[in-house]
Amino acid sequence: MSVPQGLDTIGAPTMTGSSRAVSEKQHLSDEGGTKTADELVHLEGPLPKNGSLTEEEEEFLASIVSEQANHIYHKVDKRLLPVLALLYLVAQIDRANIGNAKIEGMTKDLHMTGVDYNVALAIFFVPYILLEVPSNLVLVKFKRPSHYVGLLVICWGIVITCTGVVQNRTGLYITRFFLGVFEAGFFPGAMHIISQWYPPAKVQLRMSAMYASSALSGAFSGLLAYAIAKMNGVGGYEGWRWIFILEGIASVAAGVACCFLLPDTPSLSTIWLEPEESRYLQFNHAKTRGRGTTKSNKNQFRILIQILTDWQLYLLALVFMASAAPTYGLKFNMPQIIKEMGFSTSNAQLLTVPPYVVGAISALINAFFADRFTWRMPAVAVATSLVVLSFSVLFVKAGNISNNVALCYFFVHVALAGVYPIPPAASAWTANNLGPATRAAGLAFMTSVGNLGGIIGSFIYMESEAPTYPTGYGTSLAMAAAGMCASFTLDCFYLKINKARASQSEESIREKYTDEELEAMDDRSPLFRYNL
User: Fold this and answer.
1) Phi-psi sector, 26: left (phi>0), alpha (psi -120 to 50), beta
2) Is 261 helix (H, G, I), strand (E, B) or coil?
3) What gap in Å lies between CA 215 and CA 358, rounded to an integer?
4) Residue 28, strand partner residues
5) S-S: 201 plus which of 12, 89, 336, 517, CB 3.0-4.6 Å?
6) CA 372: distance to chain centroid?
7) Beta pairing partners, 29
């Protein structure tokens, strides 16, 4: 199989207009080489009025050489990715700083016992899971997504600040619930925004660049907690309260900045994009993603039914869950786990930093190769293999952790090197294999189901099992193995479906279905090809 060379290819090859007829011997070329039609696995917007370009638009795209296209996307990178990465960094710090607050005395001050802490973790995920799809349906109604995203960030910043003044576990439960309400829309919304700017062959590296900030949040969270906790007693507040108060205020400021700094769409980005650059981004998006719309309530109901009955989304969600359960389990409990290796509270905060840095680097490397070869399954398989290996070692050695501190700490690094590449891979795979009508809601549905792993991760590290945590390590191992199996299954089904669809000519398909029927089918159209 020949593959695009590097990340400088202009999107995933697609067939448009009269070139859509599929033949096993047909070849199309791009600057990275040629692919057979069986290997061209992505075709969106089956209708000329929605998915194809006019002759004038095709000629304009053809006039843009690869160097110009790369310059345009690098320009977008500099504007879009730093803002999304910063906001996701803020979101993850605000979500996980409860773990840092715990070892600074939060549970003692709030008189929490037993599984009270685990309940506080899990409550966050109830609205977070339920509201991801509705939030993305609201997002696509906004002409300027920056305003909606900024409002979400401001609201959750206020909630985090309020967490710093709660007086009992009930107050903590309430703030965690509302944190889930407002954070629910950010990740699926950000994934959708990225898919609106980049073609399929370029999305995973960009999604990983944003998601790497999730890993770095663990590093920053430990450093910030180490510094802020020294404010213990200032203003009559304990150090753990200042962690929430100061980080919440920073989130509010980030939300205000988002309203002005986050790029909206190519058509609205006239200040920093030249007219030709904006046209190129719009036309290339139409070519590789389609031009579907989802404005009527009737269409939205149809889309909802289509999403709920889409088999691939459940397997993709299982891939996502393979990361969510172990990631949240570690993120909420790593300071405690490292402290139980024999380190002081301050040193435990600092020692959480290196594993997260390794996770961020791993996510970027994994995405680079996944985009280079436009093949997601190996990226997921390698990552889940690392997770299985690391938690197998931790499961076996944690019973004698005092004699295996270096080994266990090393495999904590390996675990994070495995879990962090998975969500951007699953998100890119989902975005590339949904049509324009279902992409926003489908992405949100996949992540909402996948984030059930967050509830699992909230309960698998039980204080009564410290320091061995057999339930935590064993469950994480099993989830990763399930995700690996799901990725293999997806790859096989995509190949089988593409081969079956390639056996039909476009002419016979259009004789059988009307344009409206093909448009309504979205990715289920026999003209659509799945990305591997």
Assistant:
1) beta
2) helix
3) 8
4) 35
5) 12
6) 19
7) 34
Q: Which of 234, 254, 242 is nearest to 106 (CA)?
A: 242
> For residue 168, is pLDDT > 50?
yes
Per DSSP, helices labelled H in 271-310 are: 275-289, 297-308
Inter-residue contact 398 to 467 (CB < 8 Å): yes
What domains are defined for the chain?
66-496 (1.20.1250.20)
> Other CB atoms closer than 10 Å to residue 307's CB: what's the count?
19
- Cα distances from 27 to residues 14, 39, 246, 405, 525, in angstroms, run 11, 9, 58, 56, 21
Q: What is the mean pLDDT of residues 126-138?
A: 94
Start-to-end CA span in the chain (Å): 12
SS3 322: helix
Position 295 pLDDT exceeds 60: no
Separation CA 187–CA 510 (nearest Å): 38
Residue, of 174 and 438, whose pLDDT is higher: 174
Mean pLDDT score, 298-321: 89
User: Which among 473, 383, 481, 476 has a CA at the least distance from the CA of 426?
Assistant: 383
Alpha-carbon separation of residue 31 from 21, 478, 521 (angstroms): 22, 42, 31
Q: How far apart are CA 515 and CA 517, in angstroms?
A: 5
Element (H, E) at 433: none
Instruction: Find the length of the chain.
Output: 532
Q: Are 163 and 248 in contact (CB under 8 A)?
A: yes
The answer to whether the pTM exceeds 0.85 is no
d(CA 162, CA 147): 23
pLDDT score at 215: 84
d(CA 177, CA 186): 16
3-state secondary structure 172-215: HHHHHHHHHHHHCCHHHHHHHHHHHHCCHHHHHHHHHHHHHHHH
Cβ(286)–Cβ(347) below 8 Å: no
